[in-house]
Amino acid sequence: MSKFINKNNEVYEADMDLNVLRHTASHIMAQAVKRLYPQAKLAIGPFIENGFYYDIDVEPKLVEADLEKIEVEMKKIIKENLKVEAFILPKSDAIKLMEERGETYKVELINELPEGEDISFFKQGEFIDLCTGPHMLYTKAVKVFKLMNITGAYWRGDEKNKMLQRIYATAFDSKEGLEGYLNQLEEAKQRDHRKIGKELDLFMTHELVGAGLPLYLPNGATIRRILERYIQDKEIYLGYKHVYTPSLANVALYKTSGHWDHYKDDMFPPMQMDNEEMVLRPMNCPHHMLVYKNKLRSYRDLPIRIGELANDFRYEASGSVCGLERVRQMCQNDAHLFVRPDQIKDEVGKVLKLIQEVYIKDFGFSPDSFKYRLSLRDKNNVEKYIDNDKMWETAESQLRAILKELNIDFYEAEGEAAFYGPKIDIQIKTALNHDVTIPTCQLDFALPERFDLEYVDQNGEKQRPVVIHRAILGTSDRFISFLIEETKGNLPVWLSPLQVKILTIADRHIEYADKLAEKMERLGIRVEVDSREEKMGYKIREAQLQKTPYMLVVGDNEVEEGKVSVRTRESRELVSMSQEEFINKIKEEAKAPSNVE
């Protein structure tokens, strides 16, 4: 059991809470900064997932080398074993206290609190901080910590405000916990798709093109092309009809769909063209509504499944874009299913089955890494969602009932719905233990209403279809970044940009290698010959660094016997095979898993 203190200065015992430990550590760090740099002004210092930070206004600016000095001073404060105490002041006295201590950011925060509200502070030694607590009772409770790095952060996240310095750090209740976390960070660094993407020549960025706009190099373009063909083949097999629609549309389209009211802050600014106001589209659903509406539909036509691999554009802040994971132009694996109400359960079930086939069967993810989240609206946030209580209640209850009927375990999350309807989001646990949402299935009664979509039922009467929005890969860009980090760049053979590298021992073996490569190329196998005058060990290491699945060593014996010595990227062993043996093997492994069982 550990001892804690709350804002009422009450001491209590409970199991260790890492968040409270880290919040206490943030105060110790702020106290150390104030001892070393008395002119520093403190902003906020919350705990966050896996650590904590503190935003500080100090001149001259801190540099990474200063972190060691701050750590040393923190250790002194911990050794002093200062008792943590809480006290409460009326608002006017709280402002006066912070003004006397020169803490202008704290004064700003207090001024925004309601009149008549008592303000709580925590004190340890000479250090006092505005805080609601709770905290550890003594500073000695923080035994294991590490300052990680310094970044810039605008005060209150507003780029119009002053840029402060944010010190990121972490704390644990054991050395093993800290070591495990640092190992996890190192693993994340090795898996970072930006690092691997550069090493494997997959994509690049350039300031002349702009932030969040990656350029796919030939290797990356190969991965994307194969991946997109794979998912389109699956969809065609399942009865999807693919379309091409423009990346540009009249603003009126998004006013009709509701995106303009609920999403325009995430869209690029409109462009005035002749008599039209045009905008880059953020998503494809409005276009697909018009494709459906292009002609009269019968109940016999439904379900109609319209799919597209389409470029969409979203105005992400330049500071938030990241490699292929978060971009300003993305290619969505999007589809919209237009269904009768009696078809909703069956079609949602088929979407969930397709998701499971892609992720579990084809890409080998464990079913245990999946969680199903029913994403609902926040009823209190009326501005974020289309205002139609009956529609929301109907859609949410239908998705809930479908998940129960399909015996799928799920949890619910308020505030995670799309603005037009609830979703089933599949949360995937990554190799780095993060929960990410990639595939999603959304139920929509709103857009069919806004676009006045209809079909003629068996009685000759016009009815309103329901739309299921679904994305299996999400976007090609984010899925590739996810896959690279999951595999460390060791992509499955069928998706590897280069599947085979033939390594010649001497010049006299080049002709044999070239003919073998030509034979494989005719079969669609991606192959290269490395005939450089380099040592074999060097050639093998380079092929391994490029994550090439198979290396074929060709020397005198191989030429004489019509064979190859096969080495995989996972093994150092050389296995002798005939040409036909290896070609038959690679032909099977190089096939994309495109057929649905």
Spatial order of the strands in the main sheet?
14-18-19-26-23-22-20-21
Q: Can you give the mean pLDDT? A: 92
Question: Nearest-angstrom radius of gyration?
Answer: 30 Å
Summed up, the helix count is 18
Report the sheet with the most strands, covering strand number, pairing sense and barrel closure.
8 strands, mixed
Number of strands: 31
Structural class: alpha+beta
* Strand-residue proportion: 25-35%
Categorize the overall geometry: globular
State the share of residues found in helices, binned by percent: 25-40%
Unreliable stretches covering 5 or more consecutive residues: none
End-to-end Cα distance, whole Å, is 54 Å
Write the layout of secondary structure elements.
Layout: E1 2-5, E2 11-14, H1 18-36, E3 41-42, E4 47-48, E5 51-57, H2 66-80, E6 84-89, H3 91-100, H4 104-111, E7 119-124, E8 127-130, E9 135-136, E10 144-154, E11 163-172, H5 175-191, H6 193-199, E12 203-204, E13 215-216, H7 218-237, E14 241-242, E15 248-250, H8 251-257, H9 259-263, E16 271-273, E17 276-280, H10 285-293, E18 304-313, E19 329-339, H11 344-362, E20 370-376, H12 389-405, E21 410-414, E22 423-429, E23 435-444, H13 446-450, E24 455-456, E25 462-463, E26 466-475, H14 476-487, E27 500-504, H15 510-522, E28 527-530, H16 536-545, E29 550-554, H17 556-561, E30 563-568, E31 575-578, H18 579-589
Parallel strand pairs: 14-18, 20-21, 27-28, 27-29
Antiparallel strand pairs: 1-2, 1-9, 3-5, 4-5, 5-11, 6-7, 7-8, 10-11, 12-13, 15-17, 16-17, 18-19, 19-26, 20-22, 22-23, 23-26, 24-25, 29-30, 30-31
Helix pairs in contact: 1-2, 3-4, 6-14
